[in-house]
Fold this protein.
Amino acid sequence: MDLGHELRTLTLTERVASCCRLSRAEVAFLQRGHRAHLDLAPTARTGHYRITPTGHVGTILAPEMRVVIRPKIPLENLFHLLDPNAPVPAFEDKTATVPGAEAFNFLARRLAELLAERVSAGLHRDYAERVAQGPYLQGRLDLPAQLRERRGRKDLLHCRYEDFTADVPCNQVVKATAEWVLRSPLLGEGVAAALRRTLPALAAVSPAQLGPDCFADALPDRRSAAYRPVLALCRLLFEGLNADRAAGPVPCPAFLLNMEEVFEGYVSQGVRQSFKADERCAVSFQPPYLIGQPVAGQPDLRVRPDIVVERAGKPVLVVDAKWKSLAEALVPADVYQVLAYCTALGARRGVLVYPGRRTRRWTYRLTAASLEVHTVRVTGAPPACRRSLDRFGRHVHSSASPSR
């Protein structure tokens, strides 16, 4: 997309309705590719529509305009939610070429930093099976391939051997994500230069075909645990850039963050940190659970809570994060959901956590399970927000301890 000419900018706020003038082409574009991100409803005034973002923030580039969706929280707090361990960038450093692309450029710069750290520490290597053909035997003979060889040529040996290489899934995903980010018209020049400087170290790595399967293959194990932050960031960037997949032929014309998922990831980091040194408990994030016994001829019943804490292999606590303002009364659907998780898994404690301006907590003692409601601070100075997250994590750890 050519960004050399000035596009009309439509600025919206997450979950806040606005009345805007749109052409037929703009309406068709948004309905075709962004129904999940924007609710459009015609008004009594011809050519004007009521637009409500559905919980996503970021930028959409349309042929005739750009749509900028701002978060309800300040930008520095959004940066903190995206990566609590990264310093908040100075606002004087304008790295984005497109209004509303600040979060994308923040994440892209963070990708360059984490990738540079991995290169400096040494890329993860592992054994991968290779095939080869030639006059000399490498590794072991590939007997089926050799038997298929026409006329049984003895001067051409089909071999299989183990290669200790950096061309493994965790590096393939990182390279593919970096190359995709570099193709985005939303990327600032300074961030692009920083990201390009890291790519020569990945020259021998083949990029993966990005998708859910490749991220599953790249899940870090004990030896590649240091890749966990960069792989989580790659997935966040992939999902944000993939938001436009139905919008049309323009490559990467949008970057959208699902704030529900951003908040879930933020809460997960706080919980993970609190259990880091505790080998008695296992913490899982969005683990799939099969409920009940499978029955032939009917689909299985599965649930996927946000966070589950297990002790001795049994779920003891379930955390459900909700990106919404907590009113005076709890939303019944939120309560039903977390209690259903607890009942299905046999957990005795359920936790609902919401964003807020300050830290709060209260408990309901119920027959089957206790329910705790928390608010975690997401506005104000990032250090204060971090302390609130740490307090929440410590309390979850305390609630899951054997003495409770």
Observations:
- The longest helix spans residues 102-121.
- Residues 247-252 have pLDDT under 50 and may be disordered.
